[in-house]
Amino acid sequence: MLSLVVLISGGGSNLRALLEASEDAEFPARVVAIGADRDADGLALGEEFGVPTFTVPYSSHADREAWGDELLAQIQQWQPDLVVLSGLMRLLPPRVVAALSPNLVNTHPAYLPEFPGAHGVRDALAAGAGQTGASLIVVDNGVDEGPIIAQERVPVLAGDTETTLHERIKTVERRLLVQAVLDIANGHVNLKELSHT
């Protein structure tokens, strides 16, 4: 059974997809803890699904490294097999990445390497792109530059706003994430091999 710690900053829609998938006794992974860098709405899913939560507020630490050290300490208490960044809106310090890699994955609302960074959906619209996508990557110290685990194209429709496009991308992200966790748990995806190609 693959154990997961999921880190969020917002509502946790990808997290909900994982929690719902893991309610199936046949699904080979379980979320053992939910963490956030702020008082995120998605923490309420912990209570709904009976999963412990923790918060490491960025603002209560002197710098990114101090915040990262506390976050890492909280994560490591759970000894997860995999850490999923699911809408966490902060870059992890290099020593946190080093400690968790390659069992550290992130969802991104674009077809990488297109539109990396915090505003992938907005950037795709601003560029007038006819299509964008969703990606799941192994986290490294670059900005959305890690090895790609899975990705899928999403068309940009006439009249799309950042909100409507992001909602359609999130639907694909959720499916990619649940499938990737399944594939990692079943040994069909080897994160170590991906990280060394």
UniProtKB/TrEMBL annotation:
<feature type="site" description="Raises pKa of active site His">
    <location>
        <position position="144"/>
    </location>
</feature>
<comment type="similarity">
    <text>Belongs to the GART family.</text>
</comment>
<feature type="binding site">
    <location>
        <position position="64"/>
    </location>
    <ligand>
        <name>(6R)-10-formyltetrahydrofolate</name>
    </ligand>
</feature>
<feature type="binding site">
    <location>
        <begin position="89"/>
        <end position="92"/>
    </location>
    <ligand>
        <name>(6R)-10-formyltetrahydrofolate</name>
    </ligand>
</feature>
<protein>
    <recommendedName>
        <fullName>Phosphoribosylglycinamide formyltransferase</fullName>
        <ecNumber>2.1.2.2</ecNumber>
    </recommendedName>
</protein>
<dbReference type="InterPro" id="IPR036477">
    <property type="entry name" value="Formyl_transf_N_sf"/>
</dbReference>
<feature type="active site" description="Proton donor">
    <location>
        <position position="108"/>
    </location>
</feature>
<dbReference type="GO" id="GO:0004644">
    <property type="term" value="F:phosphoribosylglycinamide formyltransferase activity"/>
</dbReference>
<dbReference type="Pfam" id="PF00551">
    <property type="entry name" value="Formyl_trans_N"/>
</dbReference>
<dbReference type="GO" id="GO:0006189">
    <property type="term" value="P:'de novo' IMP biosynthetic process"/>
</dbReference>
<dbReference type="GO" id="GO:0005829">
    <property type="term" value="C:cytosol"/>
</dbReference>
<keyword id="KW-0808">Transferase</keyword>
<comment type="pathway">
    <text>Purine metabolism; IMP biosynthesis via de novo pathway; N(2)-formyl-N(1)-(5-phospho-D-ribosyl)glycinamide from N(1)-(5-phospho-D-ribosyl)glycinamide (10-formyl THF route): step 1/1.</text>
</comment>
<feature type="binding site">
    <location>
        <begin position="12"/>
        <end position="14"/>
    </location>
    <ligand>
        <name>N(1)-(5-phospho-beta-D-ribosyl)glycinamide</name>
    </ligand>
</feature>
<dbReference type="InterPro" id="IPR002376">
    <property type="entry name" value="Formyl_transf_N"/>
</dbReference>
<dbReference type="InterPro" id="IPR004607">
    <property type="entry name" value="GART"/>
</dbReference>
<feature type="domain" description="Formyl transferase N-terminal">
    <location>
        <begin position="4"/>
        <end position="181"/>
    </location>
</feature>
<keyword id="KW-0658">Purine biosynthesis</keyword>
<comment type="function">
    <text>Catalyzes the transfer of a formyl group from 10-formyltetrahydrofolate to 5-phospho-ribosyl-glycinamide (GAR), producing 5-phospho-ribosyl-N-formylglycinamide (FGAR) and tetrahydrofolate.</text>
</comment>
<feature type="binding site">
    <location>
        <position position="106"/>
    </location>
    <ligand>
        <name>(6R)-10-formyltetrahydrofolate</name>
    </ligand>
</feature>
